From TrEMBL, chains A, B:
Belongs to the mandelate racemase/muconate lactonizing enzyme family. ENOSF1 subfamily. It comes from Nematostella vectensis. It is an enzyme of class 4 (lyase). The keyword Lyase applies. This is Mitochondrial enolase superfamily member 1. Its EC number is 4.2.1.68. Residues 198-294 form the Mandelate racemase/muconate lactonizing enzyme C-terminal domain. It catalyses: L-fuconate = 2-dehydro-3-deoxy-L-fuconate + H2O. GO terms for molecular function: hydro-lyase activity; L-fuconate dehydratase activity; magnesium ion binding. The lineage of its organism: Eukaryota, Metazoa, Cnidaria, Anthozoa, Hexacorallia. The keyword Methyltransferase does not apply.
Length: 442, 442
């Protein structure tokens, strides 16, 4: 089976009109997907679907990068790719000229994620399994063959990775059973966006509570008094002991983060997420140390560019919760490397989700992590945000505060063709209408 | 004066045909420039020129990003920009939707560098000064107003920056005089590319020696025996005491870097440059510590994405030589921030150059650093590579091992219109010929 074509499309949703997704730094996001389709010459015309998430402008830049990677895949044998996926990943991530634009970060790495995730989708569809199952059925040796271990040997060797996987292999069916019974624990971000009124926040907390959700996250960082008022509302509504996390989306300098969070400590946040620049490993370590006496942990990762940054966060104890993003690092292969490091360092992985399709992706990652890598649910909780799922062919199902096990073959990122047509930017019907009404400028 | 248009062009030179610029990681680079022109409504039609350097494929992706930033500038008043350049820089670098693609890294930051550098070029042309002089004539207060200090306050405050600049202000004319007399110290990379034969290396060392060059750099990292043979040739040719640096272009893991360099210690390299991933601050710190007893320092920076990474390199003693790149971080404003931090931490800044136009840029940076920020030449030496200067209207002049003071107004990155036309990719005459001859595929 050979790859015959790779297409990339610019799909955007006008979420800025409603302030869903608003935080201290991203005030008017238009949740978007750079959507990749990998086509093959298989008799049934089998395809793989992948996406990367952005928040609007610049989605076309990522599309350009995906087209550059796509060219490299055309003509390759699918079997050759999956027989040595770790090396192929490296070939793409370190393409001799493109790597200058990173290396392994920013636009080219976001684009690589969509391409790599589409390959995993294709692989899982060929095997007729959901991605979590494809991974869980692999031998430890096969799993590590998908990983590029370069730059990691001072923290994790291939041999140590194998050891982790082998230790957990005999008991994995027990954990699969548990997941089918109980799902994977989740928290909701949908009640705490900055753009919401106090009344909206209270109503949403109550709505999620009565639907069985027990873990919440709120956005903070613009104004301490305002955040204290909002935190008090949420704490009062959800009760004194339920899980509450806070997220400032990179808003502060290091000393500022420490002072600001002391002012929110009485509301007992489990973690402060993205307190400062996502590049600042040492800054996060200083914040972690300063806030530990207040019972507040540090979480970050959704903007962390690759396995080398995550390695340092673990070495320097820069975070206590590792929040990988399914599209920020170079797709599932690199995520597996990070999960393995986290297992070695004993750091719980609580993936970032929301956006477009991120919940669809991370359900596979968290379940695989539990089944094969961490083998633990302690302190693990995966983000859930309840929007835009209606555009997916097999949308995520999260009820009663947990993700249900996805069963459709693939990586769950296939979007409905009607959605793709309507929301393609700038020529889809929705955008043509908004632009003609003067509500958006191109 | 208002900005009326911002254009971006994809200019590439087919350097891969001759293996200039070949190293352990970038084996076949086509040195390229994403070239920006900022047009204004001034009566004389004043323009600013800027570029960012890439090594070929992907230059078009950076062009897409520059167009996105360019749109934001059209209609803005030039005076407003330069009155509050630090804030404008931040507005661009943290544009609410584009920032998701970084933040402050990779493609969007490379593109921002070209845009920002073109603004500095425009400013200097309006003032009819070379950029180094424009900077040197500014008050300390004006200089710090061009800098965005966000994420830096745990390492350098605006007040500390002011103090550094004020301390040096009274003596700056002495240093300007010295620069006119002696130039700024440089080393050459042009003798030590991996793709060259032993004979070529020896001949080039002799050629540069007889032209007055005393400092050399060689590429290493593919094969220790090969590197030992090449190092022996260079050491023998230049003599036992002259400056020799080595550069492995991110080739190794941390433990590998340490072992490999022990095998080259007898050739007395001043530094090993880019021993591992440019993202690995802690890895560089470990290498620095392990190689110190061998008298080898660590240098890095050309692939370091922004001031937050440089901050950590200084905090963790990850390098002993700071090699900023004039186009990798977000242009001159961010470079000023890094120079100020380096002065505080006592780290010499030895800019990366070569490529296309980087030597033209860094001469301004190094001279400004000496005049106003570090006020020292101790352990300072700026890279020089002798290629592609013929495409510039005011090419750099480096003779006798030092950069001469540039006198033309602007930031020296204006390219000849004939070069722009011939080397525009893929439709310039040079590329049309190479493509029609089958020597390049688009």
């Amino acid at each position: 089976m050979k790859i015959t074509e790779v297409t990339a499309r610019d799909i955007r949703f006008p979420t800025s009109l409603e302030l869903h997704g608003s935080d201290a730094v991203h005030k008017n996001p238009d949740y978007s997907a750079m959507y990749v389709t990998i086509k093959t010459d298989s008799p049934g015309g089998r395809e793989g679907y992948g996406l990367t998430f952005t928040i609007g402008r610049g989605n076309e830049i990522v599309m350009g990068a995906a087209q550059a990677y796509g060219k490299m895949l055309v003509g390759m044998s699918v079997e050759d790719i999956f027989n040595d996926f770790g090396s192929i990943w490296r070939q793409l991530a370190h393409e001799e000229q493109l790597r200058w634009l990173g290396p392994e970060k920013g636009v080219i790495h976001l684009a690589l994620a969509a391409i790599i995730n589409a390959l995993w989708d294709l692989w899982a569809r060929i095997e007729e399994k959901p991605v979590w199952r494809l991974l869980s059925d692999m031998s430890p040796e096969k799993l590590v063959s998908t990983v590029d271990f370069s730059y990691l040997s001072d923290a994790l060797t291939k041999e140590e990775a194998l050891e982790i996987l082998k230790k957990n292999a005999p008991t994995k069916e027990e954990r699969i059973k548990k997941l089918f019974l109980e799902g994977y624990p989740a928290y909701t971000t949908s009640a705490g966006w900055l753009g919401y009124t106090d009344k909206q926040i209270e109503d949403l907390c109550n709505k999620y509570l009565s639907a069985g959700w027990t873990r919440f996250k709120m956005k903070v960082g613009n104004d301490l008094d305002d955040d204290r008022r909002r935190a008090a509302i949420i704490r009062k509504t959800i009760g004194p002991d339920r899980f509450l996390a806070m997220d400032s989306n990179q808003r502060w300098d290091v000393p500022e983060a420490i002072e600001y969070m002391k002012g929110l400590a009485e509301f007992k946040p489990v973690w402060i997420e993205e307190p400062t620049s996502p590049d600042d490993v040492l800054g996060h370590a200083a914040i972690s140390k300063a806030l530990a006496p207040y019972g507040i942990s540090v979480a970050t990762g959704e903007h962390c560019q690759n396995r080398v940054i995550f390695k340092q966060f673990m070495q320097a104890q820069g975070f206590q919760y590792c929040q990988i993003d399914s599209c920020r690092v170079g797709g599932l292969n690199e995520i597996i490397a990070i999960l393995l490091m986290a297992a070695k360092f004993g750091v719980p992985v609580c993936p970032h989700a929301g956006g477009v399709g991120l919940c669809e992706y991370v359900q596979h990652i968290s379940m695989f992590d539990y089944i094969c890598v961490s083998a633990s649910l302690e302190n693990r909780v995966t983000e859930f945000a309840d929007h835009l799922h209606e555009h997916f062919v097999h949308p995520v199902v999260a009820t009663n505060g947990s993700y249900k096990v996805p069963m459709a073959p693939g990586y769950s990122a296939e979007m409905k063709s009607q959605s793709l047509e309507e929301y393609e930017f700038p020529d889809g019907a929705v955008w043509r209408r908004l632009i003609s009404e003067g509500r958006f400028k191109v």
